[in-house]
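2024-03-11 09:14:02 INFO worker-7 job=invfold-0412 stage=load source=structure_tokens
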């Protein structure tokens, strides 16, 4: 937790986020250890390291640490509220949010400073910026973030998908004041984003999009409209309108592609947003056609290119 060193003395890869856990307080670290010691013992032999040479040679990680591992206890900012400071501590240590939401360098180190929270990749999904570059078309307020963290759904945005799904599932069981603190801190991080300054009208260029992407329009009407058009039976209980979804406003199509391929499914025995997966029902060309249509109809950025290639890549990564 502190130094990224295993019990046998070997260096750990930062896939285990000790670069964040190193800043956890002694009190919290002791509480974690005490809790883990109440769990039943499990024996599991880890799989063999299959990384390409020389990346599988663990001693090289000592050099990586010299270059990029910088423990820095998080001091409270007296100019900010107690909730803000608590949210910052949780978000930058135990929750390790930058592990997904920050870009990485050539050696997979997180980029810090002005690039922190500027968007990154995790498990084949794009984790969008959660700073002043947030592509959301509606402002992330404290209340909206609080609800999203606890339920996996925001009526002004979209549903949690991909790696963010388990995050919201676990936050639903966290101390409410801690979840509120996280919302306070990250709403502050995104305070200068375009949607925080003004909320543009939602585009709906249906006729133009249908003309440009007729195949996508027909496929959408057949497979998607029953749930996603205004007045549809599934547009109840505060489900967000499709054009509010951040994926349609990102600078790449990956999240939109992944949601269509994999759908949304809450963990077993948990309540949450649901959407069926279409990976087995639609081929790469059909998925690309729907994505192109949706982005042309609702998106706010430049048209995405090489969509069929991106669909094939996302599908292969998910195998």
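2024-03-11 09:14:09 INFO worker-7 stage=emit residues=319
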């Amino acid at each position: 937790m502190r130094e990224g060193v295993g019990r046998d003395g070997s260096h750990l890869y930062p896939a285990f986020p000790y670069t964040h856990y190193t800043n956890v307080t002694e009190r919290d670290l002791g509480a974690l250890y005490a809790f883990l010691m109440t769990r039943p013992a499990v024996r599991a032999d880890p799989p063999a390291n299959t990384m390409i040479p020389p990346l599988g040679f663990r001693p090289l990680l000592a050099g990586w640490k010299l270059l990029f591992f910088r423990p820095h206890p998080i001091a409270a900012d007296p100019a900010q509220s107690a909730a803000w400071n608590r949210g910052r501590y949780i978000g930058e240590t135990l929750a390790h949010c930058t592990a997904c939401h920050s870009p990485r360098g050539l050696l997979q180190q997180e980029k810090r400073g002005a690039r922190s929270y500027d968007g990154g990749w995790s498990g084949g999904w794009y984790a969008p910026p959660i700073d002043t570059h947030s592509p959301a078309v509606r402002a992330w307020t404290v209340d909206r973030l609080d609800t999203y963290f606890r339920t996996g759904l925001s009526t002004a945005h979209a549903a949690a998908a991909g790696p963010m799904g388990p995050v919201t599932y676990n936050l639903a069981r966290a101390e409410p004041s801690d979840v509120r603190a996280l919302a306070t801190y990250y709403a502050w991080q995104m305070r200068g984003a375009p949607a925080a300054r003004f909320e543009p009208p939602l585009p709906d260029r249906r006729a133009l999009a249908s003309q440009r992407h007729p195949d996508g329009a027909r496929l959408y009407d057949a497979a998607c409209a029953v749930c996603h058009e205004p007045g549809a039976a599934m547009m109840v209980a505060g489900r967000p309108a499709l054009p509010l979804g951040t994926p349609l406003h990102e600078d790449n199509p990956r999240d939109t592609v992944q949601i269509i391929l994999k759908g949304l499914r809450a963990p077993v025995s948990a309540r949450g947003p649901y959407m069926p997966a279409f990976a087995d029902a639609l081929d790469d060309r059909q998925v690309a056609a729907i994505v192109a249509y949706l982005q042309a109809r609702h998106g706010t950025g430049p048209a995405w290119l090489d969509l069929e290639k991106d669909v094939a890549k996302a599908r292969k990564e998910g195998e």
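2024-03-11 09:14:09 INFO worker-7 stage=report msg="The mean pLDDT is 92."
2024-03-11 09:14:10 INFO worker-7 job finished
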